[in-house]
Specification:
Length: 235
Amino acid sequence: MENPVLLFPQLNISSSKDKSYYKVMKSAIKEEPPHKASKAGAKQKRNRLSLLLQKPEFHESDHLGKAGNLAKAASVSPEEAVKWGESFDKLLSEKAGLDAFTKFLKTEFSEENIEFWIACEEYKKSKTAHELLPKAKTIFETFIQKDAPKEVNLDFHTKEVTSQNVHQPLLTTFDAAQNTVYRLMEQDSYPRFLRSDPYLNLLKGRSPARPTLRRRSRSFTVNDFQGARPDFNIW
């Protein structure tokens, strides 16, 4: 492996915000027993991590853990809300849009997708090479490995490639997995968000009502949307 100094010649030490997020995520994982969890255990694990995501220390980061309350979007003007409907990229690029979409995914019990996407964005902000391995391990154990507490839906090939690359991580280690999850949200959750009552109320300039929790009618898979859109460039 190349010398980290050569890979990142002008990079500085990580911010305390990044360290706070990965410290909390890593501690959540270490609390779990090493053996394979039962279905009940996996559910408890998800609930525990959800509670961690609501802790104040998570709210110090730019995005992750700051899912926000859709009620806060009441201050969003109809003109701003209209822009969210122009593209999924536009929605995620605006703080209020990201918060509103995250809250919507929580009503569908699929918030792990946006949390993984945000974690990847934060990972790519790493400023030194030695930060990458512990951060990559945390993301992998939280979102990708089998029976992970917030496992996202990835095809076999993408999961295998990511599993191999995580041992010698680069800033691009999670790009394929992040792109896959992005497309799933864009093709599945995003259209439903645009049809949801809270979003439609924003377009009309009304304060959004408390969303009703509901479960997804079925679990969409990567194969449902293969070929739907070529890989995007988030930058």
